[in-house]
Amino acid sequence: MKKELIFAIFLIFLLSLVSSVNAAHTAIVDITPKNLLETNISNFSLEIENLISSTDAINNITLITTGFLIINVYDPVGSISWVHVNDSTQITWYGAEIPARFKGYFDSKFQAQKVSSDASFTWTVKTKDNAIIPEIKSQDFTINIINDATPPVLVLSTLLPTNNSFTNNATQYFSIDTNDPETGIETGNLSYAKCGKDYVNQSFTCNQTNCNHDLDLGGFNDGEDLCYFFTIFNKGGSSSSTDLFLLNIDRSGPVFDLTDLKNINNTNDLDGILEFNYSTYDEIGVENCSLILNNNIINTVTSGNMTYDASATNDSYTYSILCYDKLGNFNETPKYKIYHDTTVPTINSLECNPADNNNTLTGQVICNITVSDVIEVDSCSLYINNTLSQKLIGSAIGNNFTTSVVASNNNYSRYVKCNDSVGNEIITNKTYFYYDNIAPSLFNIQNNTPYSDAVTINWNTDELANSSVNYGTNPLTLSLPQNSNSFVVAHLLKLLGLTSNTTYYYVVSSSDKWGNTNTSSQYSFITSLTSSSTSVSSSRGGGGGGGSGKPTCTEKDYNFTKWSECIEGGKATRTYTLINKNCIKNTNTYDVNLYIEKDCYYKSKNPIQQSVPETGSEVQSNAPIEDNSPLTGFSVMDLIPRQLSDNWKHLVNLILLLVLLLALYVIYQKKKYPKIKQEAIDNVIRVSAITKNKGSSVVAVAQAAKLTPTKKVEVKKAPTKDQLKNDFIEQTLKRIQEREKTIKVQNEKSRFNRDFRL
Question: How many angstroms separate the Cα of 216 from the Cα of each of 202, 219, 227, 422, 694?
């Protein structure tokens, strides 16, 4: 034991001698830190300390690195001044000395490189002193780089915009929260495109907790979809990506179903409670809708129904619906119009030329009308003889009606109808006027049997006219006049104070109330010798002679047309033209209306003729018959059919079906059991008589006639007696017809019929 202790003390002594020799070249060296995550940056501190005092102090320090990038080098500070040089792998400090017993700190900044797995790298520190023969002392250190294999963490709940969201922005903010606890977030990337197109990559601005970017959406149109996803990288090179998300570009407002709004367009709401029903849709949802009435917002709701009480005032209203979606996009329907108008237009004045019951000399009719309405007048129409002649619309209503008619002996009726824009209408009373430049036609000119001192001249005209006869004994000078200012169509004038047995000449003339005059040819007659009833035949000169024939017409010759089809709840119409007892036909055509309460039905089997007052239910619809017409109102009603009711139709159809079945049955029976001709019966009777001794049975007759059926008739069930009889007779008759056709045995006929009951 003592030997071992002595040996240890000896070794320590020897080492101390060596140390004293090399003291100037000995230093304590240390480096921190020893471990670092990849890509991380850290300050490294190199500590150098001189152990003993020596003139050969340390004056040069070199640090050699691997696996790291030199970011920055710091010179030591204090009582000594150093400088440094460095390249990519080592740093050298020089230019001063470390005094004895003095520590020097040499700092620098390094970044760890990226590694695929954890790795160790060796750093070397070398020192030099002032010895004549410099001796470098080295010391190695191990630095560990730890691989960061964990990707960044993405917080999807913070994603903006959210998946399948909508936007109408021109610029959209994209953002996602992220973190990486090991190496930290390096950068981020947004990949986006119109869905289905190639993606565009856009770098993010990232910090350690968030990556975000504003993206211009000017290239995206309404209705297009933007597909996008995020990719975030950490400093260790690992990355994380989101799923593919969708952003809808919505720059248009809600869409409408306009059916209900269109249906009330240009209608008149009589109660004034205006109802606006509509339906609308938007992908993101409808926020609210407003009723725009006469350019004012009346109501704002979220449903599709709105009302407005306009009952207090007759007026017109423009209306539309304005709706917003939840992004603020809006859309408005077209503007429509609705009315609340319960009044007809007002005709302020109506002046026509010619005036009522006057005559126009040119055929031109002019009517000046002024009309007003609480809303607006749509049109005014002039009707001549119940037919539309002219229509004025809108602003043209302020102009005159100007139309023309053709000349006629008959009058014309006229009235004006004005409508407002919602169908309210007013019709003026009928007035009548004439365009008559036609002289009356003269016909049936004749005189009765002249007396010695008097004669009656009569004639007819086709229109109402006065009566005038100019007569005399000199055919060249008819200086004796006889006149009547009554306007009639059957004319009669008596000429008195005549000379007996004298020839008189005369002409007749008539003027209508407008002065149109027609004069006849010259006629003549001879007065009788005495005032007795002895007739002297008249003779005509010039245009013809007179006569004494009497008309055969009656006032009931109305010349009716057929009834029209019964319509309008039981109204039928027919027209007529009067022919009076003098066979004068009135050229005016009149209407007769027949009104039945509910439906057209069978009134009676025979036509009904009945005279009724003008105010009754069946009267002429236009002007009353004038002057000598004996009727002021009447009706002649014929049978007016009505379709059978459904029950009667079914009954008739059933009867027809039964008749058809009966006819088919009769035809079938005739074909199955044909009628036997008398000639054939007689032949059978004859054979029956021959076989009298064998009895009168069917079998006996067959045997005598040597007849047997030509073929066997098979039946499924036993034939009846009548069927056996008919079958046998049929076969028998065929044979008999072949052998004999003309033999008749009358005495046996009754017995045969009785036995066979034919």
Answer: 11, 8, 14, 53, 131
